[in-house]
Structure formats: structure tokens, C-alpha cells
């Protein structure tokens, strides 16, 4: 068995393809060999191919002005990269560079798109992997934010960089919305409110779902116990990754406070567009919930 077939069989996405398709994919692959510390593609390049590593190592990173490089991941044999830009149809947003002599299995864009067309279940695999990538890098941003807040020497430039990366992560995943909805709707539909007592009653009777629309870093700091996290920028990933979809008539309660109101409304619009008929915004938000003595999970608590 040659290295191409071995690499495909070990790849997390393609290994479940039928044997015939794997053989055909191996036959049509392009092989690219690169030396150590050689650029494979750079931010701003067109999305021309998907890559599987046959041998060697590749690092994925971005360059920040006047700062060290931000490294996202180091990948080894049978791992893949380059799918984000192909799926979003946008230019590359990061750099890929070999760490050692590396052999790459290159799937041209047209072939990649044909495989996704023939085997749509692969899209869900990419979705799950991108969600994991998102959560990992949200964690990096959260840790960076904590460090900056604790550091008296933190400059405004540091804060701008953190915010910029957060926006990049959100916009990178917004393409998954099948409705093609803009990030901020021009005329949002009105969302009725619901009292804390009524929300708790419906939740206890399993007539309601509780949704936190804040970014995951804020959700991790504090949220209503049992709440689903559905921030608008990553809505489609979180929604596909486990949000209950069997009963569109269930009451969905979004909550927050003054700062989270835009997130609540954006997520509410996305839920209503997916057929949820009873979306509500919690009156008084998280503070009112806490004041009523209802359960809240805070960072570091058990």
C-alpha cells in the first residue's frame, strides 16, 4: 500500500470513504514536496487546494503587526489543512509553513468540491472539526484577554489585536448560515419578553430551553445552569453540534443584560428563521434570574 492511500485511510475526514473512492482519490492526488521552513500558502492567497500531510510537519499561523506570530496548530502525517478557505470561498486567512521536509497530498479545489457533492456527510465532519478549532482558539483568546487585563503594561494595541482575532473567528464561521443572513439584520423581527418566574416554570416542566447568546468566553464566566451557548457569530456550528431540533414549537428563552442585548436579538432572529415559533427574551436578564435565587454556573464552581 503506497503512502497516498495510507495517508487517506488514516485521515480523520476521508478514511470512511468507500474503498473505490479512496483509490480514485489517491490516483488523482497531486504530490508536492517542500523543504524545511518553506511557505505552502500565505494569508491572502486564493483557496486553490486542500492538503493532507503524507510525511513531515506543517504549522498554521498568522502574523500580527509589531508582534510575534500567533501559532494556531502544528500538524503531522495524515492530518489536513486548507479547508476553511475552500468552504468559505474566501482568500486564505492564515499562513501554512513546513517545519521539516514535508510531502503533501494536494486535492485541487474542483476535486475537493466534487467529493463534498458526492458525499455530503463529509461536510458534517468538517463542521465538527471547525467547531473544535473554534472552541480551542476561543480559549486562547480568553486566556490572552485575562493576561492583558491583569497586566498594567497592556497597551490599547493589545486589546485591539484580541478584539480583531475574535471578529475574525466569528466572521470565518458565519458562512455556514444557509440563509445567507447578514451579521446585523436590517429590520429584525420583534421578540416578546417572558418573566423570570414563567421562564423557570416552563423550564422545570421541560416546556422551554434556555439559551445564552453571549460569546463563549463570557458564557464560561457565568451562565444559567443548563443553558445552551448559541453566540450569533458561531450560531450555525453550535446549532448543528447539539442544539435540540426535534420540537420547533418549544419555548426558547434567551437571556443576558444590557451588554448582551444585541447578541440576544441576533440569535433570536436566527432561531426564528429556522422555524422556532416561541422565542422569548428573559425580562431582566441574568441579573433578574440570579436575584430570584435560580441556579447559575460560574467559572471555577462545581
User: How many discrete structural domains?
Assistant: 3
Using only CA atoms, what is the Rg?
22 Å
Please report the total strand number as a whole number. 15
Return the CATH topology of the largest domain: Jelly Rolls
Q: Cα distance, first to last residue?
A: 50 Å
Rough outline: elongated
- CATH top level label of the largest domain: Mainly Beta
**Strand order in the largest sheet:** 9-14-13-10-12
Could you tell me the strand content as a percent range? 15-25%
Biggest beta sheet summary: 5 strands, parallel
CATH superfamily of the largest domain: Jelly Rolls
- How would you spell out the order of helices and strands? HHEEEEEEHEEHHHEHEHEEHEHEHE
Provide the residue-averaged pLDDT.
80
Structural class: alpha/beta
Q: pLDDT under 50 segments (min length 5)? A: 175-187
Number of helices: 11
CATH hierarchy: architecture of the largest domain: Sandwich
Write the layout of secondary structure elements.
Layout (H helix, E strand, L loop, with lengths): L2 H8 L8 H10 L1 E5 L4 E3 L7 E7 L2 E5 L7 E6 L4 E2 L1 H6 L6 E4 L3 E7 H10 L2 H30 L5 H18 L19 E2 L1 H9 L3 E5 L3 H6 E3 L3 E2 L5 H6 L10 E5 L5 H13 L4 E5 L2 H7 L4 E3 L4
Parallel strand pairs: 9-14, 10-12, 10-13, 13-14
Antiparallel strand pairs: 1-8, 2-7, 3-6, 3-8, 4-5, 4-7, 11-15
Helix pairs in contact: 5-6
Amino acid at each position: 500500500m503506497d503512502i497516498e492511500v495510507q495517508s487517506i485511510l488514516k485521515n480523520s475526514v476521508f478514511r470512511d470513504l468507500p474503498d473505490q473512492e479512496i483509490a480514485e482519490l489517491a490516483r488523482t492526488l497531486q504530490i508536492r514536496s517542500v523543504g524545511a521552513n518553506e511557505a505552502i500558502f500565505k494569508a491572502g492567497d486564493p483557496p486553490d487546494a486542500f492538503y493532507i500531510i503524507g510525511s513531515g510537519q506543517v504549522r498554521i499561523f498568522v502574523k500580527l503587526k509589531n508582534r510575534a506570530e500567533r501559532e494556531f496548530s502544528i500538524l503531522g502525517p495524515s492530518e489536513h489543512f486548507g479547508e476553511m478557505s475552500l468552504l468559505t470561498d474566501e482568500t486564505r486567512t492564515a499562513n501554512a509553513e513546513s517545519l521539516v521536509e514535508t510531502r503533501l497530498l494536494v486535492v485541487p479545489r474542483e476535486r475537493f468540491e466534487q467529493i463534498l457533492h458526492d458525499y455530503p456527510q463529509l461536510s458534517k465532519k468538517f463542521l465538527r472539526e471547525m467547531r473544535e478549532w473554534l472552541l480551542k482558539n476561543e480559549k486562547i483568546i480568553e486566556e490572552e484577554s485575562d493576561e492583558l487585563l491583569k497586566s498594567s503594561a497592556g497597551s490599547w494595541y493589545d486589546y485591539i489585536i484580541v478584539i480583531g482575532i475574535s471578529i475574525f473567528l466569528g466572521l470565518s464561521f458565519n458562512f455556514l448560515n444557509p440563509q445567507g443572513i447578514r451579521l446585523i439584520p436590517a429590520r429584525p423581527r420583534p421578540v416578546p419578553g417572558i418573566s423570570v418566574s414563567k421562564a423557570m416554570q416552563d423550564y422545570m416542566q421541560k416546556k422551554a430551553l434556555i439559551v445564552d447568546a453571549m460569546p463563549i468566553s463570557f458564557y464560561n464566566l457565568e451562565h444559567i445552569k443548563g443553558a445552551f451557548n448559541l453566540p450569533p457569530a458561531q450560531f450555525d456550528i453550535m446549532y448543528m453540534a447539539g442544539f435540540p431540533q426535534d420540537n420547533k414549537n418549544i419555548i426558547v428563552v434567551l437571556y443576558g443584560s444590557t451588554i448582551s442585548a444585541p447578541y440576544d436579538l441576533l440569535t433570536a432572529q436566527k432561531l426564528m428563521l429556522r422555524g422556532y415559533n416561541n422565542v422569548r427574551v428573559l425580562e431582566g436578564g441574568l441579573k433578574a434570574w440570579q436575584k430570584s435565587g435560580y441556579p447559575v454556573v460560574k467559572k471555577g464552581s462545581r
